Amino acid sequence: MEQPNAQITYRHAKTSRDFEIAKALFIEYGQSLHMDLSFQNFDDELNELPKRYGGSTGDLILAYVDQQLAGGIAIHRFESGVAEMKRLYVRTQFRSLGLGHELVARILASAQSMGYKTVRLDTIPQMKAAQKIYREAGFKEIAPYRYNPVAGTIYLECSLDE
């Protein structure tokens, strides 16, 4: 969808309303995968968004195009010095505007400002466009660091020192 004059804005989730909007977006994301995310405790995550992705150890960024919710991304503390990126999602009608690249760049900058040295993620094989974005952002393949039952899951890591 070409929108050359579109007004694109990004908002860090801070208010309960922001997190409710993010929850609806993440539910849409989960449905788009056509798979059961219970192995990731997805329902618990949805009910704990401010705790998981707020405060001084997490962030959640929402993207808007002409004031319409277009996408989002989040990070949370995984272990000391390491954040985990979760839930990169851009609604279909807003793809091709570069939002995915910008969301990743912004969340990596946020992670670095919070003192994280590394960001990890896991991605499933069919998410080719997201994998391209991750690799272009500097992510490299690593050994599995968490359980994911999906065959062919790819584990990636980006050093924020480079």
TrEMBL record:
Keyword line: Transferase
Q: Which SUPFAM superfamilies match?
A: Acyl-CoA N-acyltransferases (Nat) (SSF55729)
- Tell me which Pfam families the record gives: Acetyltransf_1 (PF00583)
Recorded protein name is GNAT family N-acetyltransferase
Q: Does the keyword Transferase apply?
A: yes
Q: Where is the N-acetyltransferase domain?
A: 8-161
Report the GO molecular function annotations: acyltransferase activity, transferring groups other than amino-acyl groups
Q: Does the keyword Repeat apply?
A: no
Which top-level group of life is the source organism from? Bacteria
Q: Which InterPro entries match?
A: Acetyltransferase_Enz, Acyl_CoA_acyltransferase, GNAT_dom
